[in-house]
Amino acid sequence: MRSPRPSGRGFLFDSRITFTINPQAVVYPDNAGGKINVFGTATCSRVTNQVVPLYVRAEQKQPGQQLGAGAALTSVACITTNVQGVALWVSAFADYFDGGKAIVSIEVNNPPSGVALSSASRPVRLVPYGGR
User: Could you give all domains of the chain from N- to C-terminal order, each with its CATH number?
Assistant: First the structure.
């Protein structure tokens, strides 16, 4: 059997996780700057039977100012190669979230052995709860 060899950001035989991020997230106001509900998917390229930690970041800016920034931790289990849903709350830790555009990123955080680093980022429309 051949040994794994380095290939980009991981090894040739490492499991890679691909992500999708929904283009819309809902903003829920609260006294701490609000939170957004982010949805997406994660797919493992190989079954590793490991729980892989994920770091999700959201950042909302207007010209000349930052409106909101937040982060959350979650995980995905590479026990299947089927698409798995990812849903989580991202609370603002800087300023506040409001309706409008934001950038949401998701990345493998400190991967276990056998899992390659991977990430995705995309613009997302933040919609206030009950709004359109």
Answer: 17-111+119-126 (2.60.40.10)
Gap between the Cα atoms of 41 and 44, Å rounded: 10
User: Whole-model pTM above 0.70?
Assistant: yes
In tens, the pLDDT along 33-42 reads 889 999 999 9
Identify the DSSP state of 112. Answer: P
Nearest to 35 by CA among 84, 93, 80: 93
**What one-character DSSP code corresponds to residue 103?**
E
> What does the pLDDT look like over 2-51, one tens digit per residue?
344 444 454 556 889 999 999 999 999 887 788 999 999 999 999 999 99
What gap in Å lies between CA 43 and CA 118, rounded to an integer?
Answer: 11
List the beta strands (DSSP E) in 1-130. 6-7, 10-11, 17-21, 24-28, 35-44, 51-62, 65-77, 84-95, 100-108, 119-128
Enter the tokens of residue 97: 């979230």
